[in-house]
Amino acid sequence: MATTYINITKLRRYAENFRLVSALPLTVGNFLAHYQLSVDQLYKSTTLMELRYSREELIRRNPDFESMNLWKKGMSKIGDMDSLEWINYLIRYLEEAASPSPRERRLLLMFHYTLYNTAPKQEIHASLKSFFVSNPDVQNEIKELLLYRKEQIDHLPKQIHLEKEIPLELHACYTTAQVLTAFGIHTEERMAPFREGVKYASEYHADLFFITLKKSSADYKESTLYEDYAISETLFHWQSQSRTSRMSPTGQRYLQQRENGLRVILFVRESREDGNRHTLPYRCLGLARIQSEQGSKPISIVYELEERMPTKIFQESNQVVKVV
Fold first, then answer.
1. N or C terminus of the chain: which is more exposed, having fewer CB within 10 Å?
2. Predicted model pTM
């Protein structure tokens, strides 16, 4: 659903009037809540710090401010984050940038690829620590946004049964870049190429399925317009690309899951974009095991989820189908 676009002039007037209409401090959370704004309505065109201070003041206080167009688009992506572990860790890191554990290092790199589309120029801990120390207003605004997102979490946090260094949370939302980073595919040295709906993480013998339920022919090739939908809160129908045969190496990997120990993790979103053309993240439905299969080019598979999906997610994922 589209939300009303609010221009910078109106947002600046909101910020100037805030202290007149509210006894609360001017923070990202208080600002959004008072004016009933979405994260995207604020960050589509500006930031709260730009509404608080003049450009000259921001540049004086934040040496990297003029490069903000490289990372500002990531603020809306932070507005999609809802992993409690990840948010709590980043808040602690912003308060005291202690050396990270291997799992925490993945969380930091996931955050880097939330803000940027290129690999960090130096080791991730040093890179982020230096950036935040040099840019206190950016650091403060990101912390305020994370605190706001923490209050918006609407699922019960639960870890997925994966290796300790893979920091994903069941039913939390992630971009493809964040997931690929969690699995060590995107690294501190490079971002791996990825265009298809499935990525095989060879190090962990896991297939990562990125599923968009409502596909548009304008956004997807004909070979990828497959039928994916929830059958129940525990069963999900997935269809491979039209060129994948049963006897191909990829098809055999899918079909021999019981024998080869392959792990399948489903990530699902309703559509590619919302009404404001904001790219939507995927919700992690967790591990899935093959229940039944049929066909070739494409192969249709019904997966049983290890954990029941919440009713709200089921309603978003469900289509009217006849299961024989």
1. C
2. 0.92
